[in-house]
Amino acid sequence: MIRDSALAVSGLLTERLGGPSVKPYQPAGLWKEMRNDAYEQDQGADLYRRSLYVYRKRSVPPPGLNAFDAPDRETSCVRRQRTNTPLKALVTLNDPTYVEAARALAQRLLTESVSAAASSKVRIARAFRLTLARDPKPPEIDALLRLLHRQQALYAQNNDAAVKLLSIGESPRNERLDIAEHAAWTVVANVLLNMDEFLSKE
Whose C-alpha in 13, 18, 43, 62 is 20 to 30 A from the C-alpha of 95? Predict the structure, then answer.
């Protein structure tokens, strides 16, 4: 549900229902280590299908699901246990799926705003409505504006770091967007996708 929510708010989620299982991003060589078998990652829209369709090999479960204590499917699971570990944060902050979702959400904020000249505050408010379904509080706006300005300054001086961040994932990047601006908003989007309000499903 968390992965699907990140894909949905970013605009990447593939809505198609049914069909064969898909193989999204996974660390290179994982199957080779365990089964001497090659993992062939899918391309295009299949990368962004709902997690329900993710191919699951019982001997090598998908690492992203494993970190969230996903059931192994060997026995029936009536109720999921609560998951709250540092491994979860490592996945949502670093896994290509979530970084790409943050990049796509940032692109959405920069291109779908009410006007091309929309202020940062307007974009932050839109980001809150998309991710948390509420308006931000003034201290939250201030904190994200400070983060945005720091990241803008950082990426303006380090173009290579911005390009590296924006190269994560296979979805195309809007080349008309300023690289430093897009990278800075990607960091802001990543923060929102990692807030407890977004991740915790009660």
Answer: 18
